[in-house]
Amino acid sequence: MSGARVDFGVLGPVAAWDGAGRPLALKGPQHRAVLARLLVARRRIVPVGDLVDDLWVAPPAGAVAAVRTFVAALRRALEPDRPPRAPATLLVTEGPGYALRAEPAAVDAWRFEQAVADAGTLPAATALVRLEAALGWWRGPAYADFADAPWAAADRARLAELRRHAVERQAAARLDLGLAAEAVPDLDAHVDRHPQREEGWRLLAIALYRSGRQGDALAVLRRARRLLVDELGVDPGPALRRAEEDILHHRDELETAAERVWAQAASAYDRLVAAGSRSRLESTTGLLRDLAMTGGGGLTAAREQRTAAIDAAERLGDPLLTARVIGAYDVPGLWPRSDDPAQAAAVVAAAERTLAALPPGEHAATRARLLATIGIESRGTREPRPLDCARQAEAIARELDDPALLAFALNAVFMQACRDTGTGPRRAAIGSALVDLAARGGLVSFQVLGHLIRMQARSGQADFAAADRDAEAAEDLAARHERPLVGVFTQWYRVLRLAIADAAPVAAVERAYRSAAVLLDDAGMPGLSDGLLPLALRCLRVWRGEPDDGADCGPYERWARPDPAALAALPDPPAGLFTEALWCLVGRAAVAAGDHATAARARAALVPAAGEWAGAGSGLLTAGPVAEHLHRLDAALAGAS
Length: 641
Prior knowledge:
Blueprint: E1 7-9, E2 15-17, H1 29-40, E3 46-47, H2 48-55, H3 63-78, E4 91-94, E5 97-100, H4 108-119, H5 124-135, H6 150-176, H7 180-193, H8 198-210, H9 214-231, H10 238-248, H11 257-272, H12 278-292, H13 296-315, H14 319-327, H15 341-357, H16 364-377, H17 384-400, H18 403-416, H19 424-441, H20 444-460, H21 464-481, H22 486-500, H23 506-518, H24 526-529, H25 532-544, H26 557-560, H27 579-593, H28 596-606, H29 626-640
Antiparallel strand pairs: 1-2, 3-5, 4-5
Helix pairs in contact: 1-3, 2-3, 4-5, 4-6, 5-6, 5-21, 6-7, 6-8, 7-8, 8-9, 8-10, 9-10, 12-13, 12-14, 13-14, 13-15, 14-15, 14-16, 15-16, 16-17, 16-18, 17-18, 18-19, 19-20, 20-21, 20-22, 21-22, 22-23, 23-25, 27-28, 27-29, 28-29
């Protein structure tokens, strides 16, 4: 593991994890104190004498030798595979002392600082995603196990202040996005803990007012004034006084410059482009594509209007126009289960009709977009036609050397790569190709998609350090380019990482999964959300040997809890990124029921994924290493022979 990534946590008790998210054994409190002191130094050298003075009020004889012993033990924990006498690369000796050369992204506090700084320059939607993720990294007070250590006091105070600032920035972003009611509970708790924060009181009053609770808003302002004057001896500041005036007089906020530009452009378009024109129809498709990437409500609205746009194009009797309307909706697709199967089938049927109507041998790029559309919209199938369409689209795009078309085609190839078990390496390669292609061509949405595909695939292959980097890259791009739905996938991925950590109690992981599930409520992705939370909890409990909670897993229930009497008639699990996990659950049921034929089916399906973690290729959940399930199946089948 020499050179492998090690992550450090100080936002709570001091901890360290290897690249797979497993906690490292740091031994006793003095070892942790040395590590914490070096982290406080932020990569700078800490002389041995300073470490001695910081660790003991009255240093004992042999304190310097003890510090060196602590450092040696830490080095063994941080770089267990370092050859004997090879120089350390992480906890290094320099001059009179030691330095911890951790990368900025490897320390949760340093990542938190950067995330909060970035959020100050981002649009509200992306800032909210970034701040919610960053606040989720806190496991307790900073340096919780060194609360009384003078050397940690300044860093603890600074991080606590930054956390308070982040909570207020998060609330401001929610207000900017019209999520006033959602902001109230966190702000209420915030001002109770930190009553001196005028900005917290101001935001709480505004959130209450915008939630239709003017009386409560004014009561909050009176309470803030009374506390500030009576207990702290200061008058409310101008921002708090102005908020009270605005609420009393029902003042509306000024419209933004962006709103003015939008209104003027929309008015000009409406005035100058003839109603019913083909230009309007094609422009509508482009608008729907952009709308789909703005968040859950936009995705739902775009999906509802897409088939109407295709129907309108078909009625005009122009196959080329219809092909452009269908193919222009190149919204990246990550999840291989349709949000609306009936609508997807209608789009595929229209694409097939349009393909048949196009003049043979002409309009190669337009034809490729129709083929890619069929490959993407035919999700969760093992039929040969969609796979063939995806491959044709890729071949045409490569022949034309068209980066945007190739990205769309590779999305279709990815979707059709989710039909079998053990496809992690193939999907990782597609993700890498998309990342490289999109980065060169400035195709931000497909660059994000490539990172998310690779995050999923690398997670399934237990390459969690690389998956972490892809998650961070996707979040960075999403933050800069307003892709709020990315946070749904990366937040679930982080809960998966928590689930894989050996020290994470099942109850803590379940709480984290339930919190992540809230993000799905308004995401507009029922194909992802239906049955996801109960399936994640079912897989977690089976893997960790915990009792079943009995929650219905929706579309996955028949494989999550198969009927022992009907195992022989149970069809294969649906194509998708949960296939391995579902086969593992079926295999366990078969072993318990003594159904050796079904156990053999499960084994045969899982062998191609023997080196993967079951379900982790989804980036969402896992039933543990596939190898463990294969071992159980092999033992049962050997006993039956």
